Amino acid sequence: MREGRGVLVTGAANGIGRATAARLTAAGARVCAVDREPADAPPGGFAIEADLAELDRLEELVSRAEAELGPLDALVNVAGIWEPALVEELSAAALARTFAVNLEAPILLAAAAARGMRERGYGRIVNVTSVHAHHSSREALAYDASKAGLEGATRTLGIELAAEGVLVNAVAPGFVATRMALGDDMKNVLESDPHRRVYVEEGKLPIRRSATAEEVADCILWLAGPGNTYVTAQTVTIDGGLTSTF
Which residues are catalytic? Predict the structure, then answer.
């Protein structure tokens, strides 16, 4: 990441988003950290408190970031929500909320940021999807569908923007030790008896541990930077070998 480049990172108050904002800042970028919860303002950057489900305010969000940072060189869409429910319990409101934050907001932010990127002939967009885009589970219909949609959107964005120097990719984490994965009790799911037996003892998760947020952020850092000159419309799976054992 070159000194002074402007980057907008969503979901920056904790987890992968927070780690990504820190990695980018350490690499010399000026970061706009966005979250619906208060996020720390990165050194040389600033923070915005915003709910991405308010889709009609996303254009304004990008404009505000560029007013403070200058032209955006990169956009990293990390923010996501998961409201577990069986299909017969899934409400229209929960489905709409999940799609708004996980799918519609990243697409609309990418569209807004890409206009300036295309004009300048340079840009990097990275979306955080999930292994759930291809490997589903109970009580995750809305989440699974939203992440599959975002992976498809990543491919299309990559195809449409490549000729203008804008590269668009996704990273798909598996088990990551973040607040979303750990839950309110902050317990690693891999420590529960059934998960430990299947994923750790029997080796369904070959590395046998969760990733750290920083390990995912390191991959995002490269995809979002000028060192990436030829990778686009791709999804990089960061899952410790998990999906290779399905």
Answer: 143
